[in-house]
Amino acid sequence: MAPGLAVLVDGDNIGGKYAAEILAIAAQQGSPTVVRVYADLHQRPDWEGAPGYRLIHSGSGKNSADLLLTIDAMELALTDGMDQFLIASSDGDFTHLSQRLREYGVTVIGVGEAKAPRAFRACCRSFTVIGPKVAASLVPDTIKRETDLDRKIRDLIGQNSKNGAGMRIADLAPQMHSRHGTRISTYPERRWHAYLAARPHLFEVDPRGSDARVRFKPGGFARVA
């Protein structure tokens, strides 16, 4: 088998309703030569009949789909020379697989829902969130418009983010003040986490915490620019 793109889906974690969307994302990377979904089909019948996928019935054992996907991924990389993987899951357990594949010089593309943990995302060259999108009609007009402040935040995140992990919000405040003289206390939200979370069409924010990070959404800026 010539090197190429393998699409491996954790069907116990990702629903079959996303089958077409995952293939569309894969098509942006190239022409997949392997497209598989791993699931207990007795529990996830929504994957049966999904066009373009080879279904791998994992049975009912604990983490059986994860294990089969991991075994096949390593075999495809080490034996068949596959050099790109799209792994679709919101499960942080795939962090280890993504790290190991990356160490072998393999490109890993992640796809998952918004709940996918930061550790998994950071091990992927890129990560695409699937699932419900924020309706533009739900974003207040005063927030919907991209501002100069938003662009400065975006640029600062880009300079401080590695492997798509984003920037610590705790580091954003002092840098915005030192570079641009910005004090978030002068804005209605008064705190950076609240400001960023109020703009989900532009930024993706971790839950509150000392290590919470923020990532900007390139497509969001493209829409409102």
What descriptive keywords fit this protein?
225 residues; alpha/beta; Rossmann fold; six-stranded parallel sheet; elongated
Quick synopsis:
The chain is of the alpha/beta class. The protein has nine helices and nine strands.
> Please, what is the oligomeric state?
single chain
CATH-assigned fold name of the largest domain: Rossmann fold
Level-1 CATH class name of the largest domain: Alpha Beta
Query: What proportion strand?
Result: 15-25%
Note the main sheet: 6 strands, parallel
Give the tally of β-strands.
9
At CATH level 2, the architecture of the largest domain is 3-Layer(aba) Sandwich
Q: Rough shape? A: elongated
Structural class computed from helices and strand pairing = alpha/beta
List segments where confidence is low: pLDDT < 50 over at least 5 consecutive residues: 134-138
Alpha-carbon distance between the two ends: 44 Å
Domain unit count: 2
User: What Rg, in angstroms, do the CA atoms define?
Assistant: 19 Å
Helix residue percentage: 25-40%
Report mean pLDDT, rounded to a whole number.
86
Total helical segments: 9
CATH homologous superfamily assignment of the largest domain: 5'-nuclease
For the largest beta sheet, what order do the strands appear in spatially?
A: 3-2-1-4-5-6
The topology string of helices and strands comes to: EHEEHEHEHEHHEHHEEH
